[in-house]
Amino acid sequence: MTTELGTFSVNIEDRTVEGILLPFGETSRLSMSKTEPIYFSADAVSLPADASVVTLNREHDQFSPVGRAIVLEKRDEGVYAKFAIARTPEGDEFLTKEYPAGRFKKLSAEILGIVRDTADKARAVAGKITGAALTTEGAFESAALFSADDRGRQSAPTSRNRLTRMAPSTRTRPRRPRKRKTWGMGTSASPARP
């Protein structure tokens, strides 16, 4: 059974979601962190050789995974992704509570090593997809999930979209504090080792 809610759809029986993870030729929104808008072409983004290394999480929280990519491929409209939802309490919660409630509507790519064109700072010339997130508002307006039944009706972005400010993230729990790295053998407050 495939159910839909806005721009988001899920095949609950197969425990899969699919859609355009990174649209080509579409300018991102201005992020809350003031990251300058950017757009990608097919040549500018690389995909991992094994799609399963790409984890699907909630709102870019690495401590909240819900699935793994089973397909990543470049299509005319952008990077298409299909994810298997994990058979875990978190995956079950997504399928039975969060998705039906309409909590997530967009996909958002996690890209490492972005290099911008020196002449056109909005154009990416390199970057590698390393992860993905389910979000309430993605960086790209057309990066949304869709079911296999809807794939033929999806329209690819035809021009660079008007820039808009991205809505703030709605996190369900606070970030975990990072552990401090310490260097050296000790501090003046601690006794030296014998």
Folded structure, characterized:
- The protein has 194 residues and is mainly beta.
- The protein has one domain.
- The protein is 5% helix and 34% strand.
- It contains one helix and eight strands; from the N terminus they run ββββββαββ.
- The strands form two sheets. Strands 3-6-5-4-8-7 form a six-stranded mixed beta sheet. A two-stranded antiparallel ribbon has the order 1-2.
- It is globular.
What distance separates the N and C termini?
67 Å
Shape: globular
Helix/strand order: EEEEEEHEE
| Strand order in space, largest sheet | 3-6-5-4-8-7
Helix content: under 10%
Specify Rg, calculated over alpha carbons: 19 Å
DSSP strand content = 25-35%
Class computed from helices, strands and strand pairing: mainly beta
In terms of per-residue confidence, which ranges show pLDDT below 50 for 5 or more consecutive residues? 1-8, 144-175, 178-193
> Any idea how many domains?
1
**Number of DSSP helical runs:** 1
Largest sheet, in brief, is: 6 strands, mixed
Give a count of the beta strands, DSSP E runs of length 2 or more: 8
Mean pLDDT level? 74
